[in-house]
Amino acid sequence: MTFAPLRVLVVDDSAYNRRNIAEILSGSDEIEVVGKAGDGDDALRQAAQLRPDAITLDLEMPRMDGFTFLRILMARQPTPVIIVSSYSHKENVFKALELGAVDFVAKPDRQFTADAQIRREIIQKVLLVRYLRPRSPMPAAPAPARPAQPASPRAVQESSRLGVSLRHLVAVGSSTGGPTALLEIFNRIPDRFPGAIFIAQHMPDKFTRTFAERLDRKGGLRVVEAQNGEQVVARKAYVCPGRMCMEIAVTPGSGVGLSGDIRIRVGAPAPGDRYVPSADRLFRSVAQVGGSRAVGIILTGMGDDGVNGARAVRAAGGTVVAESEDSAVVYGMPGAAVRAGVVNESLPFTAIGDFIALLS
């Protein structure tokens, strides 16, 4: 099938960056740069006039910053937006994703250095717009009620987790659109959830710790960037560090399955890993340790990461849930799992949060 070139508006207050980004995008026969804007006001005018298929956006701009631009754009004219932001403004990236941006490209500094990796990444993420499915309005569903608890220091909360019986191991695989879905999911999980959650989110390495911290502030569970050798405890979630892969294993001689001493393994990807982090590897290890108490969650994203791992979860007697087509920004990963016949149920991401919250 032949597609018309994607029409892209480049928004950045730096003329140098605008020129570089436009040149990179114009190097693809599938992309046409139709406009360039130096601030949010000009970008809104051009967006209304040109009706681009996608927009690349710098968040730091004079007159009208990227956040204000996003709020107005999404209210007036919802358009796929790819954030182009420096490593030093990680929190801003996640705020922009929550405001409706689709994905982001990280640049090493204020200027957009056009090395081969960044060239490839920005073209790939703009072309991904062809596969986006706009989120349907979701029915308002209240998050599960959380029992009121007296305030206590985080150290006390952490120590209490060590005495809680671990009853579920939940592995999550996600890519484009995943951060926003996960923030909503974690907002619906109570702090007394009797399990551990492991997240393989395709994301640059310098952003995963900030993402874990944002999830940690969002809901009741403690969320951390996983460390090699860390003990797995209930009421806690672990985000795989970027450019690494994560698995879990029981310490030999400590017990069997959930009764044993479960530790996290974080290491470099293997030659056979097609995705990094690998949801397949994570799911297989969770299936091996958790058996029927293993749960695999496949969220939005391109490709088919998680399908083989989901097959292992099902073979072990566990449960696999895929994000439904109605709510997935990109239906690639969950759709591949559904077509492979390895999914027990498809749910919108809000219902996935409720599903996890009700595990007991």
Automatic annotation (TrEMBL):
It comes from the Bacteria. It catalyses: L-glutaminyl-[protein] + H2O = L-glutamyl-[protein] + NH4(+); [protein]-L-glutamate 5-O-methyl ester + H2O = L-glutamyl-[protein] + methanol + H(+). Its main location: cytoplasm. Transmembrane segments: none annotated. Residues 163-353 form the CheB-type methylesterase domain. The keyword Ribonucleoprotein does not apply. Residues 7-122 form the Response regulatory domain. InterPro entries: CheB-like, CheB_C, CheY-like_superfamily, Sig_transdc_resp-reg_Me-estase, Sig_transdc_resp-reg_receiver. It is found in: Cytoplasm. Phosphorylated by CheA. Phosphorylation of the N-terminal regulatory domain activates the methylesterase activity. The modification 4-aspartylphosphate is found at residue 58. Gene3D superfamilies: 3.40.50.2300, Methylesterase CheB, C-terminal domain. Belongs to the CheB family. This is Protein-glutamate methylesterase/protein-glutamine glutaminase. The gene is cheB.
